[in-house]
Amino acid sequence: MFYKLKVRNEFQRLCQIVQGTNNPKASWLSNEIFNNGIRELSPIAKHAGLEVREATFFIIYHAIRHINEVFTLEEMEENTPGYIASERRWLTALYTEYEDDEDKPDWRIPDDQEWTLGGEIIPRKTVDSESTKDIPAEIRKFAELKKDGLISEKEFDKKKKELLK
Q: Is 81 a residue whose pLDDT tops 50?
């Protein structure tokens, strides 16, 4: 519990440096990292034995990576104005932190593997070709159906949740 609190405090300190205020709500991305990234990724960072500052950068990296796997930059900028500028500020902070570090962490996960909540890297489950859809394209398709009045907001949200599982 204290580990997550320390990571939150470090993130707020970094917010002050990156965006000029320690309030994570100053941008959608910062708020997303603060509310969801820290909650979901702190246990992984702790299990991996990362120090608080390194864990904070680990969480920033993976939160941005996850968002960019789900949505295109154009979609993010359209739906959350200022996203690209905010993302650049955070990535600049991340790369500046490790640019001169010969032992920089390699947080990338090979394509055939994934993180578990226990912090372990395991083989990614293989999926049949039927379930390998372009999820963002599927979500856009349902968004169009909702926009055209063919499905309700509730139906759209349900389908989107199913696709993102």
A: yes
